[in-house]
Amino acid sequence: MQNDSVRNIAIIAHVDHGKTTLVDAMFRQSGVYGEHEHVTERAMDSGELERERGITILAKTTGVRFRGVKINIVDTPGHADFGGEVERALKLVDGVMLLVDASEGPLPQTRYVLMKALESRLTPIVVINKIDRPDARIQEVLNEIYDLFIDLDAGESQLEFPVLYAIARDGVAKRKPDDDSSDLRPLFETIVDHLPAPKGDPEAPLQLLVANLDYSDYLGRIAIGRVFSGTLRQGDEVSICKLDGSIRMTRITKMYSFEGLKRVEETEARPGDILAIAGVEGITIGETVSDPEDPRPLAKIQIDEPTIAMTFAVNTSPFAGREGRYVTSRNLRERLEKELLTNVSIRVEDGDGPESFRISGRGELQLAILIETMRRESYELMAGKPEILTKQVNGSLHEPLEHLTVDCPEGFVGVVMEQLGTRKAKTSKMVNHGSGRVRIEFDVPSRGLIGLRSQILTDTKGTAILNSLFAGYIEWQGEIPMRPTGSLVADRPGKVTGYAIFNLQERGEIFVEPGQEVYQGMIVGENSRDKDLNVNIVREKKLTNMRASTADDAIRLVPARLLNLEQAIEFVNDDEWVEVTPAAIRLRKKTLSSSFRK
Ligand SMILES: Nc1nc2c(ncn2[C@@H]2O[C@H](COP(=O)(O)OP(=O)(O)OP(=O)(O)O)[C@@H](O)[C@H]2O)c(=O)[nH]1
Ligand SMILES: [Mg+2]
Questions:
Q1: Is 16 in the pocket of ligand 1 (CB under 6 A)?
Q2: Which residue, 274, 280, 281, is CA-closest to 254?
Q3: 395-413: per-residue pLDDT in tens?
């Protein structure tokens, strides 16, 4: 039996190829907004960090209507570190819209998300987006997409995907690159005509898979899931098949469907419907809401393993507790446990001591976003250098490998190759698009990516674009030289003076500004030599007959290099911490007193 009034689709793509922008346009053209309603750009990117960074971090569900058919859409993040969100989103849908930038073509994450969609036997629709770009190369990109499908062993029917050509920003989709369509109708029609309607027997025992969680101050915890069989009515008694195998009875008192940015109360849901259910305490992702008499759990959501780990510890710096409200290990533990409920791709274990935790995830950005979120919630913590998770395969040590794509102007190929050479990368492909830019593909141990982005951006004057994707495990590749520099470390507490900076700035780059307060053991700069150097960064100029303060004003200081969170995480060595508080990001030695450091 199929539910012809519904289609469920996820939008997947590499980062920035225009997914969220396309959802905006679908909103505008399906009457989601009232006539005078204020329309925000990338409305689905509702998180504070999403708006600040201009990227999608969490997958989100919405719904629009076209010719009486309800189209549920899941917008997913394109950044590789949030791949877990995509894997989970694919559980809700019957098909995907694969967006590909008309100039950039398929990139590593395009491959990853398409691979996951094909594995789940979802029906693909291809949308070549941004055809307005002056450097668009539509036909070439389409060929690359076919190659990608073939490379991923797409089945015969999957290869017969429809192709649309879009300018998401203008709300236009065309069946041919040069036809005169001026809206998204061809896209809506393709979704309704080509995507299979959801199947499932409304008379069978209820099965609803929870694939996402949300929270509202008004409704409490909200579980988002899809009905696979049976019918759920408001007020029904149901069983929850928990992840640990136990069964719990409860009643569903409130359920909602998605209409644009709003949720609409529903009284009945049938197979294929995507719903938000409120008021079920303790329910989590992967659990099945089922028939009370005949509980039938659906298969658990399997997702890829973490590849990177980081230690989070209680802040033990002399400034601990000054700037944040939550600082104890209990605070950290509770917050991390809460994170586990919604963030399916991270793991939390106890760390080496009682005051520390080991968090594993998919990448540095994913963990940095978690830290940034916590710091905005008034937590303080220290984070250690990220480590790559190795494993034993047939008795030998293996490490994660990434497939890395670097796009850069021709003139920088030399420096890029050199930088990657020292990181044990092997070139797998090099394409010159003839536009003055070159695309080089590498296989490189994940370890080799730590600190790579900032290095390459410096080496190429900000012109290179890097994209990487986890590509399995290889035998341990031997030592990769890490940061070749040491740290400049404050040898006493106090306030930084311009005078001291002036005298130290030849030794390396300074991370602090005059007037800033430091403690002993805090890292105040990067030493250009490979050893740490203890420095007095608070030294005052001896008072002579000249007035010190005016003399201070006259000296020329190189502007400080103020590290943001990601840069700080990339910078620290094994014996160093990044100290994070709501007000500051500081770097420090793990051992603060210089006499106790080696
Ligand atoms: N020229 C052009 N730019 C577009 C078009 N569609 C989107 N963009 C721009 O591309 C950028 C990225 O758009 P998003 O919609 O945030 O991309 P996304 O795929 O949702 O990105 P992530 O969720 O972070 O993976 C924005 O600056 C958009 O304005 C288009 O059709 N043409
Ligand atoms: Mg987005």
A1: yes
A2: 280
A3: 999 999 999 999 899 999 9
Angle between helices 413-421 and 452-459 (to 10 degrees): 150
Long-range contacts of 149-156 (CB under 8 A, 24+ apart): 149/114, 149/118, 149/124, 152/111, 152/114, 152/115, 152/118, 153/118, 154/118, 155/118
Of 80-89, 91-100, 174-183, the range with the lowest mean pLDDT is: 80-89
Mean pLDDT, all residues of the chain = 91
Q: How far is residue 582's CA from residue 585's CA, in Å, rounded to a whole number?
A: 8
**566 in contact with ligand 1, CB cutoff 6 A:** no
H or E segment at 498?
helix 498-504
Say how far apart CA 472 and CA 262 lie, in whole Å: 40
Whether the CB of 19 sits within 6 Å of ligand 1 = yes
Q: Which strand (E) or helix (H) includes residue 359?
A: strand 356-361
Distance 15 CA to ligand 1 centre (A): 8
Please tell me the distance between residue 578's alpha carbon and the centre of ligand 1 in angstroms.
33
Choice from 169, 465, 467 to test ligand 1 binding pocket (greatest atom count within 8 A of CB):
169
> Is 229 within 8 Å of 205 (Cβ atoms)?
yes
Does ligand 1 lie within 6 Å of residue 56's CB atom? yes
Amino acid letter, 48: E
Give the HSE-up count for residue 333: Cα atoms under 13 Å, Cβ half-sphere.
Answer: 9
74 lines ligand 1 (CB under 6 A): no
How far, in Å, from the CA of 127 to the mean position of ligand 1? 13
Q: pTM for this one?
A: 0.86
> Ligand 2 centroid to 385 CA: how many Å?
29
Query: Is the pLDDT reported for residue 220 higher than 90?
Result: no
